[in-house]
Amino acid sequence: MSEIEKYLLDEMTKQEAETFEKKLAGSPSLQRELEEQRQLIEGIQSVLSFKHRILDKLKRKTSNEANLSDSK
Amino acid sequence: MGKYSDDKRKLYQDLTNELPAAFQFVYDQVYSTALLKTSKDQNLAHDFTNVALIILYDYIKSNKLEATTEKEILTYVKRICFNKRIDHFRKNKNIYPIPIGFDPSSESPNAEGILIKKENYWKIHMALSILEKEDPIGYRIIDLRFFKNWRFDEIQEELLEHYSNKRSVMNKLSKVMKKLRELLNCIS
Q1: Deepest of A49, A58, B135, B161, by most Cβ within 10 A of its Cβ?
Q2: Is residue B114, in this structure, part of any structural domain at all?
Q3: What range defines the domain where residue B67 resides?
């Protein structure tokens, strides 16, 4: 796992994070890469959240209809 | 609707009932950018609408609700989408006013960055769908880590038969992220 991923996923110790942040401050290319990966993670979170919200709602509806059908 | 059978009519009615949740999400996202009435906004709303349609269609197929064809469902749902979109803009014109003197091109790089990022959601959805089919375990890790916010040791316990330690799960996630980036480049 890369340093960027560890940093974004909060898998660094405090000391590792501080060292990485110093390295980050002096490297525009690293900053760009970090921002790209951060955006990808945020995008994944939003898409999954959207998908789960819709699927949960649809599953509840299907389940309710099945219960109603059974009770008849 | 006269040409549709009763079964199809019921399915369409069910879809109509579920669509507001999807549309609420679409408009929340669009308006949260505070960039209104630009062509980018329209494309963004269109992208989110398409994601909602695909999710709904996948659900219909996976639950064997195949009472009709893909074309018929999409034609009908798209018509509802279009009408609801127009209604929403009409009703909410005063709730979401455009800031006076607002010019998207002169806005801060951050605001523009957010918009660009959100336009990628459609691509991300496509990439995740491909991943889910090609690498179900990788997709499961993504879902547990990024949607449920599980820690890596919790994921490893859940997937004990596949991974013996936390580090192997982390390495797998790293590979999956690389695969997603490659897929996104292919979708571009």
Answers
A1: A58
A2: no
A3: 1-107
B138 and B91 housed in the same domain:
no
Instruction: Name the DSSP letter for residue B146.
Output: I
Q: Which of B17, B120, B145 lies at the smallest CB-CB distance from A43?
A: B120
Q: Are A47 and B47 in contact (CB under 8 A)?
A: no
- Partner residue facing B21 (CB), from A37, A46, A53: A53
Task: ipTM value, please give it.
Answer: 0.85
B134 within a domain of the structure (yes/no): yes
Q: Is the pLDDT of residue A20 over 70?
A: yes
Regions in chain B scoring below 70 on pLDDT: 1-122, 187-188
Q: Taking CB atoms and an 8 Å cutoff, what residues of chain A touch B59?
A: 54-55, 58
Tally of domains in chain B: 2
Interface contact flag, B25 A61, Cβ < 8 Å: no
Gap between the Cα atoms of A43 and B119, Å rounded: 10
pTM greater than 0.80: no
Could you tell me if residue B173 is inside a domain? yes
**Contacts by residues B22-27 (CB-CB < 8 Å, ≥ 24 positions apart):** B22/A54, B22/B49, B22/B52, B22/B55, B22/B56, B23/B49, B23/B52, B23/B81, B23/B84, B23/B85, B23/B88, B25/A50, B25/A53, B25/A54, B25/B52, B26/B52, B27/B88, B27/B92
Q: Do B128 and A48 touch (CB under 8 A)?
A: yes
Determine which of A35, A42, A47, A60 to mutate to test the interface with B (most B C-beta atoms within 10 Å). Answer: A47
Nearest CA in chain B to A46: B121
